[in-house]
Amino acid sequence: MSAIILFSAVSIAKIILAVACALASVRIFIGPRAQDRILGLDTFYVNAMLLLVTFGIGSGRVIYFEAALVIGLLGFVATVALAKFLMRGEVIE
């Protein structure tokens, strides 16, 4: 019984996260300002990271969790670099 509940919950979470990724990609491409596009990118990488975590829960493989960790680290660095570029016009001082 609990395996059926876990499978259905993970399946529903995958669908919802895929829709959230699609909506974030729309914000990335249609965003009227650069700040909106950066926020869309930030939302996209968080949703992609959570999607990989749900794949890892569903399959039981560790590689998905490691990939989610790498996406989280690179996404944070990219968001900070883009925000600094928008604020000052340069990334490296």
Keywords, separated by commas or semicolons:
3 helices; Helix Hairpins; 87% helix; 93 residues
Description:
By secondary structure, the protein is mainly alpha-helical. It has a single domain (2-88), classed as Helix Hairpins, CATH 1.10.287. Helix content is 87%, strand content 0%. It has three helices and no strands. The chain has helices at 2-30, 34-59, 63-88. The protein is elongated, with a radius of gyration of 16 Å. The mean pLDDT is 91.
Low-confidence stretches: none
Task: Tell me the number of helical segments per DSSP (H or I, 4 or more residues long).
Answer: 3
Total domains = 1
Strand content: under 5%
CATH class: Mainly Alpha
Biggest sheet architecture: none
Order of helices and strands: HHH
**For the CA atoms, what is the radius of gyration?**
16 Å
Named CATH architecture: Orthogonal Bundle
Number of strands: 0
* Computed structural class: mainly alpha
CATH fold-level name: Helix Hairpins
Distance between the termini: 58 Å
Q: In one word, what is the shape?
A: elongated
Helix content: over 70%
Mean pLDDT rating: 91
